[in-house]
Design goal:
6 helices, mainly alpha, 3-stranded antiparallel β-sheet, 50s Ribosomal Protein L17, Chain: A, single chain
Length: 147
Amino acid sequence: MRHSNSGRKLSRTPSHRKALMRNLAKALITHGRITTTEMKAKELRRVVEPLVTLAKADTLAARRKAYRVLNDLKLVKRLFDVIGPAYAGVSGGYTHVLKLAMPRKGDNAPMAVIEFVKKQAAAKAEAPVQTAAEAPKAEEAKAEESK
């Protein structure tokens, strides 16, 4: 029976699987978006999401735990200085997996893109929406400045 056996084996030995997930996590933290097979992307979520949760804590112990997974001080610094603060108000769901329409050419494996979710507050700050009451005030201010 398969009770309490979580995770995917991905046709690899445990050490190879651990190295694969470590390398995929490094690539995702470095680039913010990677293309891989669908199963690898889904399994990578289980590695990266706890790392981002650790990065939100920003303690020495959390940095050491992240270093155990990443084995790269530059990536740990990027994780804690850039990625962690970006998701300070978010509780989980830091990545999403988008399935691609075309499978891989050589073996027809289903492909997917895994990327960090854009923060909603940053998207709203880039394009502020004016209400109907604010529009006339802005026009009056421009008219006064031109005089």
